[in-house]
Amino acid sequence: MTHDGDVDSLVRQRIRGLRVARGWSLEDLGSRCHQSASTLSRIETGARRISLDQLSGIARALDTTLDQLVASDSDDDVVIRPQHDEEQGVTSWQLHGDRGPQGMTVAKLRLTRPAPTRGAGELPVHPGRDWFTVLSGTIVLILGERTIRVQAGEAASFSTMTPHAFGAEDGPAEILAIFDHGGERTHLH
After folding, report:
1. HSE on the CB side for 134, CA within 13 Å?
2. Among 20, 48, 153, 165, fewest CB within 10 Å belongs to which?
């Protein structure tokens, strides 16, 4: 099968899968995208080519986008490879390839760097909030004048307008974090 054939088949499977997941018949989808049930049946089975205007209407009716319908089905969409930053003492796995709702990014971080000591430089500030839960180890969170220890099984949420930084205490620690745009730029890049 050609690459175009692979994409064509995948799009047809996605259309049928989304329709069935909603519990819709071909007639139900047809009434929502202004196409006949027989046309949709031929599209789903491959007996008819899909035109761009048909695909656009089907995507709207299924509450999805053209991009989502034709997105690649390669292993690169499945496997999340770590990004190592030895200098910063951080390995990260960005778990949400495209930015999530309201510009949020979800990432798993393995921290080997210790938390900065007071007077070691200015702590970063950015608009928004950061949230993380500690999966293993202990994280030391410097938040303004406070030093807060967050242990495995605990979580932290804080305004990032307060000068802040965090690092591992007594060995590596892993966290699952949700960052807004400013947090992503500060903590992942």
Report:
1. 22
2. 153
Q: Say whether domain 83-188 belongs to CATH 3.40.50.720.
A: no
Count the neighbouring beta carbons within 10 Å of the beta carbon of residue 171: 11
- Compute the chain's Rg from CA coordinates: 23
Instruction: Report pLDDT for 74.
Output: 64
pLDDT of residue 45: 93
Considering the entire predicted model, what is its pTM? 0.59
Q: Provide block-wise average pLDDT over 10 residues at a time, the chain (189 residues).
A: 67 93 94 94 92 91 89 68 85 68 79 79 82 95 93 94 92 90 63
Hey, which residues does 107 pair with through a beta bridge? 94, 177
What DSSP assignment string belongs to 6-43?
A: HHHHHHHHHHHHHHHHTT--HHHHHHHHT--HHHHHHH
Domain at 3-76, CATH homologous superfamily: lambda repressor-like DNA-binding domains (1.10.260.40)
Name the helix (H) or strand (E) containing 100.
Answer: none
Beta-carbon neighbour count of residue 14 at 10 Å? Answer: 19
Question: Which residues touch 55 (CB under 8 Å, ≥6 apart)?
Answer: 11, 66, 69
Work out the end-to-end distance of the chain between its first and last CA atoms, rounded to an integer number of angstroms: 40
Q: What is the pLDDT of residue 130?
A: 87
Contacts of 144 (CB under 8 A, 6+ apart): 162, 163, 164
